């Protein structure tokens, strides 16, 4: 069959036009000036859209819940787009979540609050726009049920759409999305202030501690050192110090001698984090010495050994080999001893892949 050249070209162009564009796996990048502006962003215009199986409905419930949650985190919310604002936060809530295409990267799917490909029930999807550019951050809030009609019927509610929106508004009020936004925008001042504020509830402080690695620097470092003195936050704050980099080393070295086993283990874990990212081998001699001290808890030894493996240095290999001989010949079936043995083997392999131990 003969096909003319113009017709062939048309087919190729049509095929190209029909193929959906590739979705970049890279995050959208703002320039340094835009990033600095986002660090100071405080006024947000909330633009909500709510859809049920009956169509568009008034978004009052969702707008109010979103605004209340943002205000509780210290942001200012405006209701008119014509008023000055720093960022537009878009909130789309559906009784039945529509298919939204493929996520940018599999890594983002694992993040708390990341949109799910599989969820088809009621959901709110949050995104933001800055300088008329959509930011890379996306957040999804879902109801405890995946079928609004069945859930409404079971609870004696006549309108599945309104039932779903009521639960979504409650989920928004309980969500940590403003803290995630502050971390996305690198707002260390906002998060640090909330962390050390006596009026901030425990759950919020724990969430901020989990986000501390997104805002490393002197501001967060000082906040972590303050909050660490409170018993209920001592362990997670010590772990978070590991994301503050080398400036946190002196504090963590001191904590290796803390009376609490939990703090010692957390300090070793944090030092391993610093060693992995900085390659600072100065942390190794104190860790190796602590590893050999008598009466060191097995869990602490395990974290120390892992930290040594995260900071590979051939000078650590001989002490580890000697230590490995002790732990593998010890007559113990304690699960913690088994973890220590695995950690020793792993760390020796990290330092020298040809290293091995005889079990």
The parts where pLDDT drops under 50 for at least 5 residues are 5-26, 103-110
Give, in order, the helices and strands: HHEEHEEHEEHHHHHHHHHHHHH
Secondary-structure content class = alpha/beta
Q: Tell me the span between the first and last alpha carbons.
A: 71 Å
Q: Give the count of helical stretches.
A: 17
What is the makeup of the main sheet? Answer: 6 strands, mixed
Helix content: 40-55%
The total of beta strands comes to: 6
> What's the shape?
elongated
Q: Approximately what portion of the residues adopt beta-strand conformation? A: 5-15%
Q: Give the mean pLDDT.
A: 88
Rg over alpha carbons: 26 Å
Molecular structure report:
With 359 residues, the protein is an alpha/beta fold. It is 51% helix and 12% strand. Strands 1, 2, 3, 4, 5 and 6 form a six-stranded mixed sheet that branches. Helix 3 runs parallel beside helix 6, helix 13 (261-278) packs parallel to helix 15 (298-310) and helix 15 (298-310) packs parallel to helix 17. The model is unreliable at 5-26 and 103-110 (pLDDT under 50).
What is the element layout, followed by pairings?
Blueprint (H helix, E strand, L loop, with lengths): L4 H14 L13 H9 L2 E10 L2 E3 L2 H13 L3 E3 L8 E8 L11 H4 L13 E8 L2 E10 L5 H7 L5 H15 L2 H8 L3 H9 L5 H10 L6 H10 L6 H8 L7 H7 L5 H18 L5 H9 L5 H13 L6 H13 L5 H17 L8
Parallel strand pairs: 1-3, 1-4
Antiparallel strand pairs: 1-2, 4-5, 5-6
Helix pairs in contact: 3-6, 5-6, 8-9, 8-10, 10-11, 11-13, 12-13, 13-15, 14-15, 15-17, 16-17
List keywords for this structure.
359 residues; 17 helices; elongated; 6-stranded mixed beta sheet; alpha/beta; single chain
């Amino acid at each position: 069959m003969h096909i003319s050249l113009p017709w062939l070209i048309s087919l190729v162009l049509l095929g190209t036009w029909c193929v959906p564009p590739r979705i970049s796996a890279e995050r959208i990048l703002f320039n340094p000036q835009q990033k600095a502006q986002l660090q100071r962003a405080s006024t947000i215009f909330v633009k909500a859209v709510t859809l049920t199986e009956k169509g568009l409905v008034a978004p009052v419930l969702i707008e109010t819940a979103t605004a209340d949650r943002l205000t509780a985190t210290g942001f200012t919310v405006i209701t008119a787009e014509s008023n000055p604002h720093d960022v537009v936060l878009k909130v789309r809530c559906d009784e039945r979540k529509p298919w939204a295409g493929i996520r940018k990267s599999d890594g983002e799917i694992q993040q708390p609050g990341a949109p799910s490909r599989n969820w088809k029930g009621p959901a709110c999807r949050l995104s933001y726009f800055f300088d008329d550019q959509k930011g890379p951050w996306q957040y999804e809030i879902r109801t405890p049920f995946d079928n609004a009609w069945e859930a409404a019927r079971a609870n004696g509610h006549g309108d599945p759409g309104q039932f779903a929106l009521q639960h979504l508004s409650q989920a928004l009020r309980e969500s940590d999305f403003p803290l995630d936004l502050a971390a996305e925008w690198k707002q260390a001042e906002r998060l640090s202030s909330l962390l050390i504020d006596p009026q901030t509830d425990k759950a919020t402080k724990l969430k901020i501690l989990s986000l501390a690695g997104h805002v490393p620097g002197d501001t967060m470092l000082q906040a972590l050192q303050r909050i660490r003195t409170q018993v209920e936050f001592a362990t997670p704050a010590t772990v978070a110090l590991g994301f503050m980099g080398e400036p946190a080393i002196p504090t963590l070295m001191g904590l290796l001698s803390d009376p609490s086993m939990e703090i010692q283990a957390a300090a070793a874990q944090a030092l391993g984090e610093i060693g992995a990212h900085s390659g600072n081998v100065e942390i190794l001699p104190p860790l190796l010495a602590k590893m050999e001290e008598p009466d060191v808890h097995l869990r602490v030894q395990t974290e120390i050994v892992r930290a040594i493996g995260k900071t590979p240095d051939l000078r650590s290999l001989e002490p580890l080999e000697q230590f490995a001989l002790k732990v593998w010949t010890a007559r113990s079936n304690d699960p913690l001893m088994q973890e220590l043995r695995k950690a020793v083997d792993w760390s020796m392999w990290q330092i020298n892949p040809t290293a091995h131990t005889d079990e």
